[in-house]
Amino acid sequence: MKPLRIGMVGYGGIGRVHAMAYRSLLFHYGLPADRVQVVGVATTRKDSAQKAAAEIGCEFYTDDVRALLDRADIDVIDCCTPNKSHEAILVAAAQAGKHLYCEKPLSMGMADGARIVSAVREAGVQAQMTFNFRFLPAIQRAKQLMESGFVGRVFSFRGRYYRASYIDPNKPISWRQQKSESGGGALVDIGSHVLDLLYFLMGDVGSVQATLDTLIKERPAAAGSSEMVPVDVDDIALMHVRMADNTLGLVEVSRMGTGTTNQLMIEIYGDKGALRFNAEDPSWLEVYDVRESATPSGGMRGFHRVETVQRYDGAKVPDWSHAPDFVRSHAECQYQFLKALSEGRAPSPSVSDGLHIQAVMEASVRSSERGGWVSVKEVLSEVS
């Protein structure tokens, strides 16, 4: 891999994860320290930028994104900011000739997302979304099985992402619960991940029928404050989803899933087999083979756990037998992006993929507001 130098914009919780992953991937693949380097960081305040630079181990820090984009020693801009600022940062970075690595979701809405996609195309730079769950070995194995026809004709599917992030009504409001800052609630925040996995495994989404609801309608402005602020985004989204090939399934998303921690699940049922995955048990993919069970005595009927653990091609450490974790999935997502840049290939998932997921979420919002099914193509056609 040729040396690639990164400038980070934003350094909250996910920014730290990205920085940690960049550092770790050098060890995962036995790469020299100069192959992947974070050389600068920009945040909204000079003091937080200075602290971030000290943690990352880079010399340059700034509260002016333009100063980061103007540096000739930066090849890639990694955008880890709140959703509201994605479009301005990514368009400016593309126009500055930088490759882009963007946290999900792509943007606040379709118009912003389309401008990002156009800017990338016009500048001739490469861009990738951070849909890191794609890069768990169990999901990669599921993709192989889907492409090989293991499942056969898909009858139905289910995607579910539940967290208990906001069950406490006294938890202060955050930017993630204000539409002007986030563009949406649970659907945008965690639903984008489960929608991307279904898209990755099964192809384009055709249409949706959705109900979005806000369960706690106001929250304290700050810890201990008596001032209450309205919550104007969804806490839960329940969706019927029809894929472009007409396959019907269900998607459930909630940040009010009492008792759950980070419960991301995928189930796909077909005429020849079935697949199940639970991110809380990431070392395994569950598979069911109809042919194996079609014997008079039942044979080996039932779901079987396929050992996927940490089987990353070319990885040197940790040993493949160890369970993968969240940061490792980010490191692999970054590695495949940087490897594609080094080899002159288009990376995946692209910002166009991110725009498709944005359209699915927009269709879901429209469906909830007006009732009935909404076509994803209808939404995409408005920005094409």
Note the topology.
Elements: E1 4-9, H1 13-28, E2 36-42, H2 46-56, E3 60-62, H3 65-69, E4 76-79, H4 86-95, E5 99-103, H5 110-123, E6 127-130, H6 137-148, E7 154-162, H7 179-182, H8 186-202, E8 205-213, E9 218-220, E10 228-230, E11 236-243, E12 248-254, E13 263-270, E14 273-278, E15 284-289, H9 290-293, E16 304-307, H10 326-343, H11 351-370, E17 374-375, H12 376-381
Parallel strand pairs: 1-2, 1-4, 2-3, 4-5, 5-6, 7-12
Antiparallel strand pairs: 7-13, 8-11, 8-17, 9-10, 11-12, 13-14, 14-15, 15-16
Helix pairs in contact: 1-10, 4-5, 5-11, 6-8, 8-11
Q: What's the CATH superfamily of the largest domain, by name?
A: Dihydrodipicolinate Reductase, domain 2
Which bin fits the share of residues in helices? 25-40%
CATH topology category name of the largest domain: Dihydrodipicolinate Reductase, domain 2
Largest sheet: 9 strands, mixed
In angstroms, what separates the terminal alpha carbons? 35 Å
CATH class of the largest domain: Alpha Beta
Counting structural domains, the number is: 2
Rg for CA atoms: 21 Å
Return the structural class: alpha/beta
Low-pLDDT residue intervals, each spanning 5 or more residues = none
User: Count of DSSP helices?
Assistant: 12
Gross CATH architecture of the largest domain: 2-Layer Sandwich
Order of helices and strands: EHEHEHEHEHEHEHHEEEEEEEEHEHHEH
Mean pLDDT: 96
What is the strand arrangement across the widest sheet? 16-15-14-13-7-12-11-8-17
